[in-house]
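Case study: Efflux RND transporter periplasmic adaptor subunit.
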Amino acid sequence: MTDAPSLSVRHKRLIGILLLILVLGGIWYLLSRTPPSAPAFQRGAWNQATPVHVVPAARGSLDVQIKAIGTVTPLHSVVVRSRVDGELLRVHFNEGSEVEQGALLAEIDPAPYRARLAQAEGQAQQIQAQLDNARADLELYEGLWEQDSIARQQLTSQRALVEELQGSLKANTAQVEDARLQLSWTRIVAPIAGRLGLRRIDPGNQVSSGDTEGLVTITQMRPIAVEFSVPEPDVPALRRAMAADGELAVQALDRDGRNLLASGRLQTLDSQIDLGTGTLRAKAVFANEDTALFPNQFVNVSLKLQTLSSVITIPSDAVQFGSRGTYVYLVNPEENRAYSRVITLGASADGRVAVVEGLDEGDLVVLEGLDRLRDGREVVISERDGE
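Here is what the predicted structure looks like once written out:
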């Protein structure tokens, strides 16, 4: 008695499933027979026209450039150290100021060195007097020798004495020059022109020629250099440009790459490529008259290699890469459909790339909406392209 109701429920479920399958099959059949010209709401989303943003391929000039991150580096930087030991008496500079080469920076107590110089000069005078007396005796002995009045040994000894005193005078003269040089070093002067750093020692302290920190650092500001690295693939083009032009223009921009800080010239390239980074070091020099570039500052470097004239260019973002190579999507305005076209690229700069083959001036290249395109896909051109 309990089996009949259970069997009836199973039959109802089976009938419901069959009806659901029939309904879904009918919907699929109707959709598959919807003609292409039917309204968009009757077609699947994959068949709808794709909105795209297009730009025309333009003919013009293109500056071929190398861009890199550089570091401002002074051509000369000197740590001013004392060359003699003693008490630092006076400091004659202001921190952060500009100095000329030879300007007096500091003084060390000269008294001990004046005493040494006086002592050396006194010894030199003493030896000079002895030498003058020995020369006079030698002249006398030579006259007596000619008269056969003295022995030859006495004449020979006197000549040796004169030569000995001459050697002593020469050595003592060198001591006098050394003492005078030591005394001159008590006045510390700027070895180069540039900007002074922070003072590292105050007057009254004892200084030594062995101090590693020194008194102050002088950094040359004008001119100044910027060092940067060039990727290995760009090195051949850079060397060709240097051989053709000699001096290549270089621009230094701020961290954002928007504001021009200074313009200069490429000075030299390193002698070898760094195996670790695969780059070649390069150095550019800037006059830096306004001191816009500061040592150890990071800047964006733009190095112009050449200017290509009358070339067809498109935005770099429009270029696609696939198994066929590089290609772009073009829009046929008469059909409002997009078609792919293989192209050959040239140099690129500032977000644009030169097209060597595959495009004509004025061709409408798809820039946005690329991810939903395929050959022959219907498109709707964005209204902003007509602005």
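For the exam, be able to explain this: The first helix runs from residue 3 to 32.
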